Amino acid sequence: MNIQIRKVENEELRTTLFSQYKAHVTMMLHETEPEMKPISDEMAMQWLDDKYDVSIRNYAFEGEKIVGDAEIYLRKPDDPEYELNKGLGYIFGYVEPEYRNRGIGTSLAKKAFLDIKDSCVHTISSHSRSEEGNGFLQKLGSPSSVFSDMRLELDGFDWNIVDEWLKIAKRPGNNWKIELHTKITDQFIDDVSDLSFATTVEFKKMNNQETIDLREAEKKKWQDSREFLEKFRQYRCFLVKDADGVVIGFTEGGVDNENPYRFIQYVTAVDAGHRGSGIGKLLKALMLDHIRQNNPQVKMITTGNNDLNAPMLGINSKLGFKKHKTQISYKIRVEEALKRLEV
Predict the structure, then answer these.
(1) Nearest to 198 by CA among 130, 272, 258
(2) d(CA 93, CA 84)
(3) Across the chain, which distance is largest between two alpha carbons, in Å?
(4) Element at 340 (helix H, strand E)
(5) Helix (H) or strand (E) holding 322
(6) What's the predicted TM-score (pTM) here?
């Protein structure tokens, strides 16, 4: 076995190495979610988008075949939060099954961490959904949070609970306005960004993440997501507003255009001062009812929850969501990882 590891630029992956790159990514996705269709060229190109991150990509080759990769993502200097978070990054890696337990993952990690050894980056995050991945990451760092990847199968789903939760909006005293949005417009961003920012800060703390978020950067994050959602998702977001028109809850998600049987549930958030009033249940019911009426091809809803988020885990469990996989996130100190990798 003659394995070569080298740094690869995005442009090379977009052109001369694209077919090899797509085959490698397709294998990774099939291992994770076997029922998903092969990734399209357009989506594979989207994964190589470097408008918002600095990516440092190292790949392992056997001949011309890509058999493994380790990719580090860092903030760009023009990011509004760069100065606050330039010492933080994220690493993702994958080695194809038949090439595991041969030292390729370790060699890729050594190369990746050497690339940032003399930079200002001091902490790298990562995650894994597999025993092999967890075993590897535990050698480099320590767990920081645990997520449950959850699924709701709609075949045979009992819609009575949705119909019951929809009635929450009509309870006496609930003077709320409900809106459905299918586009991320400037007005939508203005409306949702305050609650979105508060939720981001709360979730980052729950997840033991060290990133520092700026309120003024929140709108840019929504703006940056527009292109992806317009291309690859049938986006839906329900807002609940109080009598003054302030957003006090929202839930968002979208049909996966590449796998239209699947609806991906993103964030569901309720303002801290309005929790316990049923808004979370109402939002979940609104989205499910919308899918029932408009997307009969959807057979499955996927979502993720931090295991510490007991209220949302409780709502999802009542609806019938089942744990599909456990995702463990890790915090890796660069200096310590270099020692453990003996480089």
Answers:
(1) 272
(2) 26
(3) 71
(4) helix 334-340
(5) strand 322-333
(6) 0.94
Residue 307, token pair as written in the block: 């295991």
Could you tell me the CA-to-CA distances from 245 to 179, 205, 242, 303, 318 in Å, in that order?
11, 28, 5, 28, 30
Strand partners, 89: 74, 124
Quote the CA–CA distance of 118 and 323 in Å, as a whole number: 41
SS3 assignment, position 114: helix
List, for residues 194-237, the tens digit of each pLDDT value: 999 999 999 999 989 999 999 989 999 999 999 999 999 999 99
Strand order across the 233-241 sheet: 3-8, 53-62, 65-75, 88-95, 123-128, 322-333, 142-153, 300-306, 262-270, 247-256, 233-241, 177-181
Give the closest residue to 88 by CA, choosing from 134, 124, 58, 64.
124
Q: Is residue 227, in this structure, part of any structural domain at all?
A: yes
What single-letter DSSP state applies at residue 165?
H
- CB 158, CB 226: distance < 8 Å: no
Beta-bridge partners for 72: 56, 91
Same domain for 200 and 106: no
Query: What's the domain count of the chain?
Result: 2
pLDDT value of position 308: 87
Helix then strand then coil, in percent of the chain rounded to 5, is 40, 30, 30
**Helices 218-232 and 186-206: crossing angle, nearest 10°?**
110
Domain that holds residue 7: 3-121
pLDDT digits (tens, 9 = 90+) for 154-188: 999 999 999 999 999 999 999 999 999 999 999 99
* Alpha helices for 254-323 (secondary structure H): 279-294, 310-319
CATH number of the domain encompassing residue 299? 3.40.630.30
Q: Name the residue among 29, 81, 94 with its Cα closest to residue 204.
A: 81
Q: Is 34 exposed, middle or buried (0-12, 13-18, 19+ CB in 10 A)?
A: exposed
